[in-house]
Amino acid sequence: MSRMPSTQRIASIDLDERTILWRNADVEQERRVAIFDLLEGNHFAPRTEYPGGYAGPYKLVMRVEDGRLAFDIATEHGEPLETVVVPMSPFRRIIREYFAICDSYYQAIRNASPSQIEAIDMGRRGIHNDAAEMLQERMADKVEVDFDTARRLFTLICVLHIRG
């Protein structure tokens, strides 16, 4: 049975509230923007053949459990399909680097020249892109996601890991 590309997407996404370590207005804004952008356009195609040939769209809940990232996948009506688990250990270094360069970026906005801000932002985007590629690779045998979807999912992974 061929899958219709338009159904291979995330229709709704939530972060497990128990998993979010810390939040403030900036974190909430990052979360809202990432979710909005993700839902506007994404490609999410689990490799599992589901009962009845279900092929999306999907409801997703992201959480961290026992040091691993878990994606609870359900039908658009909320019937559970599976949980995809991805080890977090390969992401720890890149998350730390991303947080560090984001801190530099937010500090630079206050007192750096436009060229310095642009250079830091380019580095920030580069790390974000590397993380998105890593996420695509780590999920490839379980779920196919396009690059933009992986970038937005990485943003949400970061929201789950922000500490005050």
Helices and strands in order:
Elements: E1 10-15, H1 25-40, E2 44-46, E3 58-65, E4 68-75, E5 80-87, H2 92-111, H3 114-139, E6 143-145, H4 147-161
Helix pairs in contact: 1-4, 2-3, 3-4
Polypeptide structure, described:
Helix content is 47%, strand content 22%. Strands 1-3-4-5 form a four-stranded mixed beta sheet, with helices on one face. A two-stranded antiparallel ribbon has the order 2-6. It is α+β, with helices and mostly antiparallel strands and 164 residues long. It is elongated, with a radius of gyration of 17 Å.
Which characteristics define this entry?
single chain; about 160 residues; 4 helices; elongated; 4-stranded mixed beta sheet; alpha+beta
Q: How large is the radius of gyration?
A: 17 Å
- Work out the helicity level: 40-55%
What's the SSE pattern? EHEEEEHHEH
Mean pLDDT, as a whole number? 85
Question: Which percent band covers the strand fraction?
Answer: 15-25%
Number of strands: 6
- Principal-axis shape equals elongated
Assembly context of the chains: single chain
Q: Helix- and strand-based class?
A: alpha+beta
Spatial strand sequence of the major β-sheet = 1-3-4-5
Number of helices: 4
The main sheet comes to: 4 strands, mixed
Poorly predicted parts: 1-5
Structurally, how many domains make up the residues?
Answer: 1
How far apart the termini lie comes to 48 Å
